[in-house]
Amino acid sequence: MNFQVFPAILATALIGAMLSLTASADGPTRLTPEERAAIQADAVSVGDGLKASAAGVEAQIEADRLRSNGANDAIRGFLAQAALSTIAIEDAPVPAAKDPGPSTEPTVAATKPLEVKPSPNDTLISADDGMFFDAENGLLVYLKNVRLTSPDFDLAGANELKVFLGKKEVKKKPPVKEGEPALEPGKDEKKDDKKAATPGILSASGGFGDPEKIVATGAVKITQKAVAGKPPVVASAAVLTYDAKSGEIILNGGYPWVQQGATFMRAKEPNLYLRIKKDGSFVTEGQWDMGGPLNAKPAAPKPANN
After folding, report:
1. Is the pLDDT of residue 300 over 60?
2. Which whole number is the average pLDDT over 49-53?
3. Are 252 and 30 in contact (CB under 8 A)?
4. 69-83: per-residue pLDDT in tens?
5. pTM of the full structure
6. 211: left (phi > 0), else alpha (psi -120 to 50), else beta?
7. Domains, the chain, with CATH or none
8. Would you call 60 exposed, middle or buried from its count of C-beta atoms within 10 A (0-12, 13-18, 19+)?
9. How far apart, in whole angstroms, are the C-alpha atoms of residue 50 and residue 228?
């Protein structure tokens, strides 16, 4: 999964919206009822369902703990009985144990988080109430006070951040050319089965590729990092939807707004939207304000020192 794709294109679209401040003739159309319904469906919270699932996990952990305690009691009883038979061989010489060398196993559980130093080019997503990955449908969800930092922009204030992953394309096997030896029957299938059976949390998303859509809900605020001496672009809405295929962003719900320096766009009615295409063209509905020094001329260059 390449999360770097999301920050770069999202930042580009936001910058384009603020620099153009005009909709082109072939710009985006207003949202249809079907598109509105799709946005609302994507923004529906999954937190309650995940909490119910977490409660089930906690119950399973408690059951496992009780079962482990029962096993410990059984082991203690067995050892107590076995102690009688070990008295007779207590004085027997014990063979010297081989030095196993330095142990790589931890003697105690970790007492602090894993220390990781992200590089400046990394994207980091943090959440206060856990995360959930649906390996069947390719849905990754971060819960409560979600923050995202990347080289291009920061995101904060999301109650939920959903990442919809696309399926990886299955590479078709090239046909065997005439005269070439055929592969052993089932050889490739066995390799594929072995890969599919590889356990591990980090390999769980192996069947999915890059994000197709990202939906953030809450008091979402995005701050694009300042570039080329220009003020950063800041945007906010109750729901942010980003389509990675088209590069389109929709700010929806609450009172959406976008600002760069003294230039701004803001909704004057609740639950309006701002639809931004990848090239920066956009469309809105309802009552909006747009302001700032739209015709401001660049400052005259200072004379060179003699």
Report:
1. no
2. 62
3. no
4. 666 676 566 667 666
5. 0.62
6. beta
7. 1-22+135-171+225-287 (2.60.450)
8. exposed
9. 43
